[in-house]
Each structure stands twice: as C-alpha cells, then as structure tokens.
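Handoff note, outgoing to incoming analyst
You'll be picking up this chain. Sequence as last confirmed:
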Amino acid sequence: MVAQSGGPTCVINASVAGVVHEAGKHMDQIEEIYGGRNGILGILNEELIDLYEEKQSSIEDLKHTPGAALGTCRYKIDFKGNPEAAAKDMDRLFRVFEAHNIRYFFYAGGNDSQDTAHKVHLEAEKRGYDLRVIGVPKTIDNDLPHTDHTPGYGSVVKYNATTVMEVATDIASMATDAGACVIIEVMGRAAGWIAAGTVLAQQNCEAGSPHMILLPEIAFDQEKFLEKLKSIIDEKKFAVIVVGEGLKDAKGKEVAADATKVDSFGHAVLSGAADYLKDIVEEKLGTKTRTVKLGYAQRAAAHFASGTDVEEAFACGVSAVKAAIGGKSGYMVTLKRTNADTEPYAWTTGHQPLGDIANVENLIPREWITPDGFLPNEKFINYAKPLIEGELNVPMVNGLPRFAELSRVAIDKQLPARGSAEDVAAPAPAPAPAAAPEAPATDAEGAAEQPA
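Most recent structure output, in case you need it:
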C-alpha cells in the first residue's frame, strides 16, 4: 500500500512512480500494490485502487504531474488529543490491512505524515502484525530533520527564483524617481527555506533582486526593515522583497496569523504577511507597493520542475521498497550529500528511524544568514544551487503539458462501512507471529546500510 498526505509538491507523484517501479521487480514477495485514496483517511474508509492496473505510460507520466495523484488528506491519528478516537482508527486501519493482506506500507509526506507512519509502525509491533512501514519524504518546506533536503524543495526554489527574476525585471523597467516596491510572499510557516531559496535569482538577475528576504527564523524589526528598504529605494528607485508567510515579530508571534481561524491541525490560518508589510511601507515611507502571492502555483509548477528533484523523488520511492523488502520497518528514506564541499553535486539515499523524524522541524542555521538577517549568505547559496539543476522534457498536447491520467480501478471493499454498527462491533485483528529477521536493506545505489 502506498499513500500520500499533506500539501502536494510537483514531484510527490514521482515518488509513487518509484514505489510502483521497484515493487514490480519483487513479484515473488509483493503480489499486488494498492494506492490509498486521500491518504490515511481513504485507507480508513477502505477506498483503495489497484496500481498494477495502470498503464506503464501513466506511471511514467506521474514524474511530471503535479498535485497528489492518489489524493491526499490532513488527517491526524491523535492519541494525545483524542485517545479514544485514535484507538478506534487504529483498530479500523488494521482491519483494512488484514482484510487486504497488506504487509508493506509506504507513506509519502512531511512532518505530520511521518508522525502517522511512526504510529502505524509502533502499532504493528504492539499488535504483532507483520507489517513493514517506510516513510517517503515530501515537503516543499524542506524542514524534515536528518535529511540533506526533501523532494519538492528544489523545484519550488527553481520556480520561485525564476518568478522573482521576471517580476524584478518588469518592475526595474518602470522604475522612476517616485520609487516602487514589490513584496512577493511565498510558503513556509516555521522555516524560511523556500523564501531563502529565491536568493539564487541574484545570480542571473540584472536587477540584483531580491534585495531583501524576510525569514521566519529572524524576528521582524520594523525600524531596521524600513531603514534598509529606504536605502535600497533611494539607490535603485525600486525594491523587490521576498517574505515567508510565517514571518514573526520579536515575541515569536506570526505577524499574519488569524487566531480566529485554525486549520485541521490547530494552526492559526496565515492571512497575508505581504499585505502586512505593504501597509507598513505605504504608511511609513509613502512608497507605491504591490504584492504578489505565489500560493499553490509554487508547489504545482511541474512544467518547470528541477530535473535533480524529480530524479531524487523517484529514487526515494525505489529506496523505500528496497528497505522494506530487505526487512526494515519504522524508517524514513533520507537524501545524503556525498561531497558537501566539492563539485559536482553527488548524492545517495539512506534511512533514519521515524522516531527521530516525527514532529521535528529543521530550520535554517543562523550561520547561513547575513549578520543583518536580510539575506542568506554564500553558505546557503552553495547548499541550494545544485538542487535546482536540470530540466524535464515534459510531453505537450495542443501546446500544454500532458499530465498522468490514472484509471483508478477500485479494489472491492471487504469490510462494513467505517463507523457503522457492524464496523464498531468488529473485533480487532488477532496478533500474528512475529516475522523472522531478514537481511539488511540496501540504498538506491546498492550499498548495504546499517541501522542509525
């Protein structure tokens, strides 16, 4: 079983393609491969599809298809907040696994998804149910620990940095003594990796933009911000600013948080850091200011994905299956940079226990940011540069990209509807004998890996 969770990236489907591709090589151990519709929530509802029924060309097309091809969710099995409901969810989940003889479970997602995968792994051990659980990393936020970076990050940086270049070139062509300011808002609640990545635009942009990047890791100081912005506009007649949506003040409060609205995980909805800054600039400096919010476009731009990113995402899916076939469970696939201080860029895959990953946020090191806090420095640039390399040869139809079209053949349901009287009355799966230990897994390049 493979499923996807959380906000999509433009390469998350490449990881699913990697899982299907590698699973097909192990038909002696994997008779079928199912997709869970809409993540763990769809599995609980026994909404499964047969991925072996898909055309090979459709699986290949997943590499350049945005969104979550299997469907996604933001559903949390919350033992801390609602232990009774969580216990019922686990009973139901393992009834589904048992009904369909699921023995391998691959879950692609970010922090909360890896937490779910970890809980499923622990529950399988507790129940004595022979199940191997491997997390597949995914998040444009790039905030998972114990991995050099995450699939999805290189592509969002490639697209955002290009957009900054284009907007900067446009605004520079209209710059006059009156001055102008453009504020571009990008995703990134707690970590500023996405915003920081737009510094790569400076390499190719004659306008020298972005001139400032405001990160959630650096407390917003209004006085210093306005002083710096005024000096830029006085010199260049215009300024391009990038801001992460999770920008915080000196007290750690998100400047754009709307506490009256919360998402499914209880986070306050962010209602516009760029608009917040725009109001300050126009009020204090009197400078004409426009905002650009990249929103979903930045994570869906599969037409301009990083070739490196797609390759790595696919490899993560392959590595997940190899790890499970080799006997591992309770790990997330990681990406390792094998030549951090030299060129050309080289990488491999590894595995880290899920318990080390779940609910831990990896922030930008302070030493990767300039002393004044307004731009990433050379250390960050050297880190991010190779992640945006390479372009895809995206197939086109009538001048537009061709995306994967899955047939999504449904698997027959074996259980009563979730939450029905029959389902609630059903007993939990009986414990099964523990599986014998097997040989250690290998990474995507075939080298034996040792448990962390």
